[in-house]
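Table S2 (continued). Query chain:
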Amino acid sequence: MDYVDRDTKRITDQEGEPRDGATLRFGRVVGEITRQPVEQTPSQNDALRFRGSRQMALDAACERVSADESVAKYRERSAYVAAYVLDRANGFCEVCGRPAPLRKPDGSAYLELHHVIRLSDDDPDHPSMVTAACPACHRRIHYGEDGEAVNNRLRAHVPAVEQAITDGRFIVVTAAVIRNDDDRVLITQKGGKGIIAGKWEFPGGKTEPGETLEGCLKREIFEELGVGIGDLSPLHMTDHDYGRIFVRLFAFGCRIVNGTLALKEHVQDRWTSVEKLLESDLASADVSIANALRRWC
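Corresponding output:
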């Protein structure tokens, strides 16, 4: 037999005192590993790298973990699922939306993998059942008073994300939270006839293959507003299903460093305080960003 994984929870010992109890899971050793696992690190270059690593994860996934599976086979398959989920997260917690609070020695974002149904409870080892969480959210799910409610939300949300990717509706979008010297934030009103026509938004746009999130945002802001931005810092990530498209929106704080603001794709612009952002008719995904700014900035 070989060790596969474990699950921990608070239990009471014979003296009635609380302590951490661990349930260990073992599998019968059968066969040998035939290929090397991929590195479990998120992409540092291409924000759309998950499109490629997803197919490897789906090919490696199974409906449920076999009771007699060896640790070598389990870890080999799970490595592909893990690498994909981290690529999908792009350095942001998929639970709270905040950027990863730590960096690993290689510079990549530190996030923990969470199975929304425990492997020890026959969870499918599949991307639709795994999310990337910051350490605080991971602990919250397992030990917080609202952990079960958070996990139940994830059980519905993560499969919805995966289904949107399968359907070809999933797009990665960036948004700039641009502040001026008075600490006011720039929002712009969309023109045209699209899904959010007439709505106000944080300017930005869709990520193209080969771009980092930051590279995409700099390009989009120059194309839309004619200015260069700098001092980018990750702020918040949110998902929103508009029906025809499913948007994963990554927001970055920044400032204008060169150029003169000139609207090219919007009909109006407005500088407003964070406290008054919700007084404008924001697009649904941008409402989440505004709420995050009100809580954290």
